[in-house]
C-alpha cells in the first residue's frame, strides 16, 4: 500500500487510504480530532481538547472520577478549585487539566507554564516554539514551510526568488539563502540591493 501524501498520525492501508491513530483525523491523519465535540461527550462536565487526546475536569464542588464522570464532594466544594479536585489520603488537592498548567500561588487556580521560555519544549533546529495556554507547538522558522518529503513532514526552505516574495529592487538580482534571501544590484548599478541607482 502506498500513500503519496503520507499518513502523519496513522498508517497506510491501501492506495492513498490512511487509518488514523486514535485522536487524529483527516485524509492524511494530520489533523487533531476534537474529542470534546463528539456525541456523546467524553466528559460529564468540562472537556479540554489536547493534541491527539483530551482531558476531563469538573465544576467546582465536584471530584473527577477515573471514568470521566464527576462526583459531588463537600470537601471539594469548600476548596473552591478552578478545575475541580481530587482527594488523596484524606487531603484535598486542586487539579489542572493539562501538564502545561500549574497551580497558582493560591493553590486553587491554574496558571500557564511557558514551555518555550523554561526550556521544557524541544523543537528541532529549523522549528520555533510557540506557547499556548496549557501547551505549546513547534512551528517552522520564518523562511521555511512545512512540506511532506521523503515519507515525513519537514520544514523546507522557501525560495523567495522563485515565489516572488522578495523585496529586491527592479535593478537587482535575488539570491536565495537558507531561510532567507539576499539582493545584489545588477552590473552598472550601486546600492543595498533593495535600493539600486
TrEMBL record:
Location within or outside the cell: Secreted, Extracellular space, Extracellular matrix
Domain of life from the UniProt record: Eukaryota
One BP term from GO: cell adhesion
Secreted as UniProt keyword: yes
Keyword DNA repair: no
Principal location: secreted
Keywords: Calcium, Cell adhesion, Developmental protein, Differentiation, Disulfide bond, EGF-like domain, Extracellular matrix, Repeat, Secreted, Signal
Pfam families membership: EGF_CA
EGF-like domain span: 32-71, 112-150, 157-195
Coiled-coil stretches noted in the UniProt entry, renumbered to this chain: none
InterPro entries: EGF, EGF-like_Ca-bd_dom, EGF-type_Asp/Asn_hydroxyl_site, EGF_Ca-bd_CS, Growth_fac_rcpt_cys_sf, Nephronectin_domain, NOTCH1_EGF-like
Any GO molecular function: calcium ion binding
Family to which this protein belongs: Belongs to the nephronectin family.
Annotated protein name in UniProt: EGFL6 protein
Protein's organism: Ploceus nigricollis
Phylogenetic placement of the source organism: Eukaryota, Metazoa, Chordata, Craniata, Vertebrata
Gene name for this UniProt entry: Egfl6_0
